[in-house]
Amino acid sequence: MTRQTTLKDVAERAKVSFQTVSKVVNKNANVSPETEKRIWDAIDELNYHPNYTARSLRVQKTRTIGYSWRPSQPGRYNPILDNFLQGMFRNAERHGYYFLCFPFHEDAEKRLGNYRDLINSKRVDAFILSTVNYQDPCAEYLLEHEIPFYAFGRSAKPQDFPFIDVDGGLGLELAVNHLAELGHQHIGAIAWPEDSRVGNDRMEGYFRALREHSLPTQNNWIQRGEGDHETGYAAMEALLNLRPAERPSAVVCMNDEMAFGALAKLQERGLKPGKDMGVVGFDDVPAARLSKPSLTSLSQPADQIGSLIMERLITWLETDKQPDPAQELIPPHLVVRESTQP
């Protein structure tokens, strides 16, 4: 049997004490850059891997992070979630951490039961949340039990917890500003249901930008529904059924799927997106640049957010201090394409 490389082997190769190697590996050493490089070179040469099982027994850590999310419907692809997961996975692996993924239940009590079981059985050190709504029960439970967690998304006061979120309100402001600069005076929205926390954050930016440009709005210019192609298609049909003088000349959508549905309905009616009605999406999924016409959309760096959330949570676990800042909004970026070009 091949003997596993130890800290002592690395220390002998790097000509330092094994205590110094341990501190460098755990990122709490105060050594010169030359010494640190020599240690990492020795680690690479000897193919050393820390014994996390032994370490977890010593410090009662599992080096495992729990994660649950609402899965996409069968046959539907969610590139934002995929990019978010990839960003988290890569950074967790880099730090020697693992994910324990568990089912999401719509029923809040069942959902909380999973968290209770994982906490009571000491199978995870912390959690990441990505399905966060108003007064989120999982966030509330973790706060009450002082369990470390980071969220991709906000709740509402008085809940106060570490999060990174996309500034959706700013995104809709950018979209409305873009449309107003093109001369649009009547701008509608294809929005999510009124109980959607993310949707309401984004719609605040929509209304704010309309006020800044002194533009009107009407209730029938705002069509609501789930964030899918069918909703976008039906919403655009409702808008086109208004008299031409009473309908909006452009719309902002809560996501790209809704925007694709809106584009399909426009083209079915023989209208040209951009020229006859501007359409803006949100997410900038890969299909946005490939659609005909290509879709103007707001890009959010989900992979970077996933990596950053993981980095901050691991820092918290290893230093026992919440990172500063504990809450951050990431601005989206407007990518202009054909669907808003006259």
Structural key phrases:
single chain; alpha/beta; six-stranded parallel β-sheet; elongated
Task: Characterise this structure.
- The chain is of the alpha/beta class and 342 residues long.
- It is built from 13 helices and twelve strands.
- It has helices at residues 7-14, 18-25, 33-46, 52-59, 79-94, 108-120, 137-144, 168-181, 197-212, 229-240, 256-268, 286-290, 302-319; strands at residues 64-68, 98-101, 126-129, 149-152, 163-166, 187-191, 222-224, 250-253, 278-283, 296-299, 327-330, 333-335.
- Strands 2-1-3-4-5-11 form a six-stranded parallel β-sheet, sandwiched between helices.
- Strand 8 (250-253), helix 11 and strand 9 (278-283) form a beta-alpha-beta unit.
- Helix 6 packs parallel to helix 7 (137-144).
- The longest helix has 18 residues, at 302-319.
- It is elongated, with a radius of gyration of 25 Å.
- The N and C termini lie far apart (71 Å).
Brief overview, please?
With 342 residues, the chain is α/β, with parallel strands linked by helices. It is built from 13 helices and twelve strands.
Write the layout of secondary structure elements.
Elements: H1 7-14, H2 18-25, H3 33-46, H4 52-59, E1 64-68, H5 79-94, E2 98-101, H6 108-120, E3 126-129, H7 137-144, E4 149-152, E5 163-166, H8 168-181, E6 187-191, H9 197-212, E7 222-224, H10 229-240, E8 250-253, H11 256-268, E9 278-283, H12 286-290, E10 296-299, H13 302-319, E11 327-330, E12 333-335
Parallel strand pairs: 1-2, 1-3, 3-4, 4-5, 5-11, 6-7, 6-8, 8-9, 9-10
Antiparallel strand pairs: 10-12
Helix pairs in contact: 1-2, 1-3, 5-13, 6-7, 8-9, 10-11
